[in-house]
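tool_call: predict_structure(chain=1)
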Amino acid sequence: MAFKKIKNKRQKLIILFIICLFILPAAVSAENYKVIFNHLDGIGDDYGPGDYEYPQNHIFQNKGHLFDLKAMTIFEGENEYKIRFSFSNLTDPWGAEFGFSLPLIEMYIDHQSGGSNQIFHEGANVSFKENFNWNKFIKISGWWVRVFNPNSEKENLMNINELSLSDPDSNGNLSLSRKDNDLFLKIPKSEIDSLEKSRIVVMVGSFDPFGYDHFRSLSRTKSYWQVYSENEILDSKSPRLLDLLVPGGQSQKEVLSGQLPELPYLKVESELPVREPTLVDKLQPLNKISLSILFLYILFLIFVIYKFKYHK
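tool_result:
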C-alpha cells in the first residue's frame, strides 16, 4: 500500500490525523434519534376479525403471515420522524419500487385541533371514535407513499391511472425503504409538525392496484384474488382489514367484528422526564457517538505514536 511506502513517521501521523478529522464531522452530523412511541402487536393475527383467509393464488399460499404487523416504532430526530413498521414476512412477488408488494398500510394521525372524524375513503369499511379527528393521513404501498389532509382532493377511484402501479402524485418529501422485514418511513417535520401527545390509527390491508381504494375485496367463496371468509360478510360494510394495531387489553377480533367497526386509537406519549442538562447536552451539536469516536481517535493516536516510536 502507498501508506506503507511512506518512511517519514511525521508524515504518517499527519495523514492519519487528517483522515480522522474527516471521519469526526460525519459523526457529528449524524442524526440522533430518540424513541417516542413503541407498540407491540399480536403475532400471527393477520386474519381480520378472526376468520379471514388469504386468496388462493400461489403468491399468498404457504408463505407465512404476509400481512402481520408485529410492531411499530416512532423515532424523533432534530428535523424528521422515522417510523419503523415491523412485519412477520414481507415478500415482493411483483417487483415493487420499495421491495414489497402485498401489504397496504394506512396511518391516520390526530395531532392538532380540528381535523376530520370521517375516513378519507370508504375502502377499508371502518369508522373512528367520536373524539378522534385526524389531520394527516399517510397511505403506503410498495410503489408509492401518499399524504393527505382533510381538505385534500380525493382520488378519483374510477380513474385507472390512479389505480395503477405507477403514481405521479407520490409525496417526494417522504422516503420509504425496506430492510429485511422492516419498513422505514422518514417524514420531515416540515410535513407533519409535532407528534407530541398525538393519537394514531394504523391498519393493514391487502394491496390491490385495481381494488376500490386499493383494498382487496372480500368473498364468501374461495377465490384466487379475494380475501375469503366462511361467515356472513357484506363486501360494502365488512372491514377489509387483515391487521390492526390495537391498544393493550383489547381484542382485534372483537374490534373488527360487525359492519363498519369503530377503530380504537393509540396515544403517542412523547413527554420526557425533566432532568438536569449533562455535559453532552451542553456540547450540542456534538452527540454521544461523536464523543465516543473522538475518544477512540485519541487512543488510536497514542497507539500509533507508540507503534512507530515517534519522537519529536
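agent: The radius of gyration is 25 Å. Proceeding to next step.
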